[in-house]
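hiii so um. not sure if this is the right channel but i have a protein structure encoded as tokens and i wanna go backwards to a sequence. like what aa goes where. can anyone help
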């Protein structure tokens, strides 16, 4: 039998590294208007405003390989040459072999403008999957559409995908490539007409406003199909009758990951326009209604099955009265289907009952990329007052990275504009917003995104005439001065007394501008505190490995004390304190005041930051200095003749019991680790609180740490396990756990928005963090069973904790 032969090579058998060559950038690069340059003079340095004599602006191409949504190689750069120099241009190479490329490998290309003092700004970007839909390695010249003013997105699906399959020019260039490879027979008269048509179309393209980047990839004599080397199986002796027949072999099926055509057809029939007419009046049976309500109770991390997605879609009109059903409905939409996407955003969203804040925050996460959905979420958030929005500000700043990765100026949700508007109306929000954005500017790969946001925020504050335009430069100068001196003292070999002396001399020196601050300056850490100078004689250096500074500021009210740190990433502590403040607000909304102390933390850089100082003592110091333990400490500061409170003021003991309960539950939910008597603090008025959150979300340096931290010293201060105070402590724990469990979706959504942030314990395992917190809430059981489980943990934990505390004390002793 005659058969057509198809010759190809396997990608795992190819030799050489991955490489490419930049050919040209086609399209009109428009200069900025003179009015724009006058308003923002630094833009004169941009490449588009410095066109060379040959008509080409000075541009670079920043390239990086991505796979599985992660960088596969370090970035490389290539100059964008004039057409005459293309043939002499060197190939840019990556330290990655072509044979090692995974199937989802992508080449992310960003065209950069040389921006003088501004550094480099993206003119546009495009992403090229190195294997096509048939799993064949792309070869030869590639035409890529450039998304303007963004950095290349190497994720799947990419927001900057450059491959286009439509248009006459695409078709004709494909014919040319096939002819040049020898796949088509040359016909001189026809080739001449095709070449002339291509030249004419490319001439129109060069004069157009849309940009296209042409790059060359290596060519091969035959198609190269994705394949991996078979791993040899260990030889295992088997009975003769079980030996598999020789001659069998495996091949890679490029269509194995494609959509199932039968399931796709079934989905289109179920969700057809004809069925949609009947769906408007469709009412579920009792069994179906129960199934729908069960789906609505799913946590935000739960992935809906195909059957559940179809069920939600079928009864979408019935569910419009359920605000919590909106996120489930949007997850059931097949966004690749233009008709479904249009109906979901233009028809269903206006009908739906407005969601609460928790669901609106979920819609700003990376799972929802449609700008219409994100804009809807922003409109819902705009209804919240500024004080509530400030609680979520840290996460909203992280959500900006997903907005800025969208294509074009029109693809913006309005989140940036909402935050800028609130920054102008509330200086406290504006200060926090600026420092949150500034801290992210040096992080990769989103640093460039936040640099653009920082410049836009600055311009907005100046245009609006906000006082922050004057305050922020003074704050930056203050932070830089304190951070530089903190670093110098940390690195010096002086003794601690000499470090303290040097610090006080620095604060008293008029040249540093810290002894007297006029006019008063709002602290970046706490914008409500307007300081007038420092008190050198009250300032000091802590006895610690990093030697943090204790700076005492003077103001119209009582002095304000902060801790300045260098060499420590405070972004994790900043996140924990924000979640503590949020949970305290949630509990207070239920009329439950647990006297939480969410002291302020501000990261001013990757290794710099400030912490509010709360007068208190570690439990370890209290136990060694006071014969009566924690009770003796509180009794000395707030004595009472009341025997039922062990000689301590009843208000103080009540504060102690409440704060112990609050921190017991919150640290359990967040999986705070490395708890010992040196990072458990007690204020004289009974406020108990935790510090130092280097271990979070279940991480702990100790083996088998107790999930709930209740040390024996805390129980003894309540009068023992048989006292009424300990019973009240347990009751408060159960009530607060149940209250926070009702708000689990809000807490989980806030943590999920931080997954791409540079938080050490999130960055270690970003795909598991939210699930670990979700497990603590026990959302798959009833409230009674969840509280009973927490009660069991509470009863067994204090005895284990005491053993670890003794081991920690021994370790501290031997370090001295």
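sure thing!! here u go:
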């Amino acid at each position: 039998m005659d058969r057509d032969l198809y010759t190809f090579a396997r990608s795992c058998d190819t030799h050489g590294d991955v490489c490419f060559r930049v050919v040209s950038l086609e399209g009109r690069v428009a200069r900025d208007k003179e009015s724009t340059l006058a308003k923002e003079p630094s833009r004169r340095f941009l490449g588009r405003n410095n066109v060379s004599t040959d008509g080409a602006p000075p541009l670079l191409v920043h390239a990086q390989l991505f796979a599985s949504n992660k960088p596969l190689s370090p970035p490389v750069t290539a100059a964008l040459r004039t057409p005459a120099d293309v043939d002499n241009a060197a190939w840019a190479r990556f330290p990655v072999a072509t044979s090692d490329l995974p199937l989802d490998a992508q080449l992310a290309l960003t065209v950069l403008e040389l921006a003088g003092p501004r550094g480099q700004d993206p003119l546009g970007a495009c992403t090229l999957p190195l294997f096509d839909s048939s799993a064949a390695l792309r070869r030869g010249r590639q035409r890529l559409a450039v998304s303007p003013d963004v950095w290349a997105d190497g994720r799947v699906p990419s927001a900057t995908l450059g491959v286009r399959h439509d248009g006459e020019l695409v078709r004709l260039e494909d014919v040319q490539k096939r002819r040049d490879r020898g796949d088509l027979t040359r016909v001189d008269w026809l080739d001449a007409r095709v070449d002339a048509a291509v030249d004419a179309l490319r001439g129109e393209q060069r004069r157009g406003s849309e940009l296209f980047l042409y790059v060359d990839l290596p060519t091969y004599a035959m198609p190269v199909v994705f394949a991996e080397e078979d791993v040899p199986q260990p030889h295992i002796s088997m009975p003769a009758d079980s030996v598999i027949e020789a001659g069998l072999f495996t091949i890679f099926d490029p269509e194995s990951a494609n959509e199932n055509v039968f399931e796709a057809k079934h989905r289109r029939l179920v969700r057809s326009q004809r069925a949609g007419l009947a769906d408007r009046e469709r009412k579920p049976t009792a069994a179906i209604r129960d199934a729908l309500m069960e789906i609505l109770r799913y946590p935000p991390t739960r992935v809906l099955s195909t059957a559940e997605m179809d069920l939600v879609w079928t009864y979408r009109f019935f569910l419009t009265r359920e605000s919590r059903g909106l996120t489930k409905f949007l997850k059931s939409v097949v966004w690749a289907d233009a008709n479904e996407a249009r109906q979901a955003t233009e028809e269903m969203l206006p009908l739906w009952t407005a969601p609460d804040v928790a669901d609106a925050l979920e819609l700003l996460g990376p799972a929802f990329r449609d700008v219409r959905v994100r804009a809807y979420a922003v409109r819902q958030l705009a209804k919240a007052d500024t004080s509530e929005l400030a609680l979520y500000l840290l996460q909203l700043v992280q959500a900006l990275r997903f907005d800025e990765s969208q294509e074009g100026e029109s693809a913006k949700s309005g989140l940036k504009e909402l935050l800028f508007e609130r920054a102008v109306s509330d200086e406290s929000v504006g200060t926090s917003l600026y420092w949150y954005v500034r801290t992210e500017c040096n992080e990769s790969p989103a640093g460039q995104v936040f640099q653009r946001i920082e410049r836009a925020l600055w311009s907005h504050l100046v245009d609006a005439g906000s006082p922050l335009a004057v305050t922020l430069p003074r704050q930056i100068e203050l932070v830089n001065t304190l951070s530089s001196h903190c670093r110098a003292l940390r690195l010096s070999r002086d003794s601690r007394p000499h470090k303290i002396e040097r610090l006080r001399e620095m604060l008293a020196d008029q040249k540093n501008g810290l002894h007297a601050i006029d006019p008063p300056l709002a602290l970046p850490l706490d914008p409500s505190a307007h300081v007038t100078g420092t008190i050198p004689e009250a300032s000091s250096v802590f006895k610690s490995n990093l030697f943090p500074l204790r700076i005492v500021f003077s103001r119209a009210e009582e002095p304000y004390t902060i801790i300045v740190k260098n060499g420590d990433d405070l972004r994790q502590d900043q996140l924990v304190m924000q979640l503590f403040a949020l949970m305290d607000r949630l509990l207070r909304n239920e009329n439950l005041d647990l006297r939480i102390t969410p002291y302020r933390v501000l990261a001013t850089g990757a290794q710099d930051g400030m912490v509010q100082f709360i007068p208190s003592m570690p439990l370890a110091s209290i136990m060694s200095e006071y014969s009566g333990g924690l009770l003796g400490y509180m009794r000395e500061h707030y004595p009472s003749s009341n025997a039922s409170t062990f000689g301590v003021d009843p208000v103080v003991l009540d504060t102690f019991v409440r704060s112990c309960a609050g921190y017991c539950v919150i640290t359990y939910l967040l999986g705070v680790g490395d708890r010992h008597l040196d990072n458990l603090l007690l204020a004289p008025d009974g406020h108990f609180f935790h510090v130092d959150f280097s271990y979070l979300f279940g991480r702990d340096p100790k083996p088998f740490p107790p999930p709930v931290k209740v040390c024996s010293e805390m129980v003894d201060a309540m009068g023992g396990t048989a006292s009424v105070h300990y019973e009240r402590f347990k009751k408060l724990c159960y009530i607060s756990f149940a209250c926070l469990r009702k708000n689990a979706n809000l807490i989980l959504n806030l943590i999920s928005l931080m997954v791409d942030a540079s938080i050490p314990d999130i960055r270690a395992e970003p795909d598991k963090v939210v699930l670990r917190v979700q497990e603590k809430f026990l959302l798959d059981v009833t409230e009674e069973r969840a509280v009973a489980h927490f009660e069991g943990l509470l009863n067994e934990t204090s005895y284990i904790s005491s053993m670890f505390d003794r081991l920690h004390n021994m370790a501290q002793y031997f370090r001295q």
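oh and Residues 406-411, 811-816 have pLDDT under 50 and may be disordered.
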